[in-house]
């Protein structure tokens, strides 16, 4: 008998008393009543608690903020589908203002047909991505690999992640957020910079994932 | 729904790192002698307890979430064969490959075979209870494959050639100075000026592992959840070592117990609220990764899953004990346990320590395996674990159930009556009549003599010796209450007063 048949047989046998499958009571909260202003405030509070840096800016000021945050980065990577307008204020030397798809010396573009190598990514200082949805109550940002967020490796290897969250993408609580996304996509849920509490349970920010997380909330 | 036809077969138990090699009282006795260990543990468990309480009290619907979590898991167990088949179909349809492993040996052989097929001799690992349970690292080493643990605490334990003592914070028994010393001794690239600040130590680990992550071709992981309706797997972590392992290598091999399934996407909203708050006491853990088979252009191209039985079907066959399989390994029960807090995780022998280990290990291996029958007694039945458990596993009830299983399993195997049997017989003789009890009580002054001038008995003979191992017994009074009552209130016909008299008087006052 194959291991599969064997194990399924053992499990069926273990359930020969035919235990009932009880109905699942879902009396927990599945919606929250917060307005946009309250959602932003809550998300900022949670992110700051995780030691992420947060700025809340009008949509028109996102490019300036991105440029400011990238000031110290010698190089940065963006996914091919990133809103080119967000990079309009970044000084890329020779080809300032060109579309995100083109790439410059300072800016690397990670595209589906031409992904950057791991070693190359490791040499890049920062990454700029959009996000799919955020959860105010837990301070969580979810990336789903859409073209404006890119594949998982680009938001992982560079040490500085600049992540743009649209105010309309902020959900109050986790059930609301998860109901807005497709679970089949490769997902990363991010709540602050990487951290560990493995030594005497003292939280230390910054281990293997990006040590610096900057969130720009655009409204 | 699949129904079982035919005779139930005998349960097949698990193997691997699931055994207490010596009895719990013996191991606990040794561990208790380690004052440093107790100080480290007391500090850590109290810190995490407070954090957990705070973030749990923030949620107005915590109890509703627990109810949902408990019912979802009960559902999973009742429908396990059907859900496993559904998961398998979805995972496979999306490019993943499923392997089934009856026990630890089979799982180890499968993983080693998959690694060998890639031609690699090194793998990076994400912290996983299942691979510890089957002893994967040791097996791979024998096969000439080096497995590098990448979680900071696992790295500390691995570098120190030690064993994990907690399921969430495996190095909880070590303090910062001990950890610095381990790094200096075992990391060739460590800075000799290394301080014992946790931030500095974390950076040393980052530097040490960076190259491994960037060059690894194969990763081995566990999984926190698996969704049957989509074939999705989830890993919950903090440091980003999980993301590194799950994203950068070409081949990903995940080992997971069959009980980790959830029916579908909607259930994740329950467990992703229950788990982080119960385990690290955070509103959310820094990183959670979810993947469904192979995604073109994102992450590993070869995705494997080893589905592990290793005694889970046997645990499932125990109607009273099967809810132990609901466990999501959050560790809240050990953080609140007064026994774990003092003995630490090593005393339990098995990969699974604390209250959950005291029930899960004997359920997986059978109560008669090695010294595992001593584990259900490693509890005062105070119930703190039940209150803390996010999926409401009634650990105290299962402990009592397993104690009775232990007693049943020993019945008839002993030729000679044990000291306990003799003692119980004697007690039933003495307690069955007032006269007999009075006779026994005449022996009290003897006990006073045994106690000596300090009025303490510090060593009892036979099985009663266990009681006096860590405490003294005050000397018995010169006479019993019953004989004092008779003397003071006078009952010339009898040395003892039958209690019925007072009882009948009391009854008159009741309606
Ligand atoms: S038994 Fe409950 S409290 Fe203990 S680790 Fe498992 S889920 Fe957590």
Summarize it.
Chain A has 219 residues and is an alpha/beta fold. Chain A is 20% helix and 22% strand. The longest helix of chain A has 14 residues, at 36-49.
Spell out the key features of this protein.
heterodimer; A: alpha/beta; Rossmann fold; 4-stranded mixed β-sheet; 5 helices; B: 511 residues; alpha/beta; 2 domains; globular; disordered C terminus
Estimate what percentage of residues of chain B fall within beta strands.
5-15%
Listed once per kind, the bound small molecules are: iron/sulfur cluster
Query: Which regions of chain A are unreliable across 5 or more consecutive residues at pLDDT < 50?
Result: 95-101
Q: Could you describe the largest sheet of chain A, including whether it forms a barrel?
A: 6 strands, parallel
Looking at the structure, the CATH topology of chain A is Rossmann fold
Shape-level CATH architecture of the largest domain in chain B: 3-Layer(aba) Sandwich
Question: Given this structure, which CATH class of the largest domain in chain B is correct?
Answer: Alpha Beta
Instruction: Kindly state the number of beta strands of chain A.
Output: 12
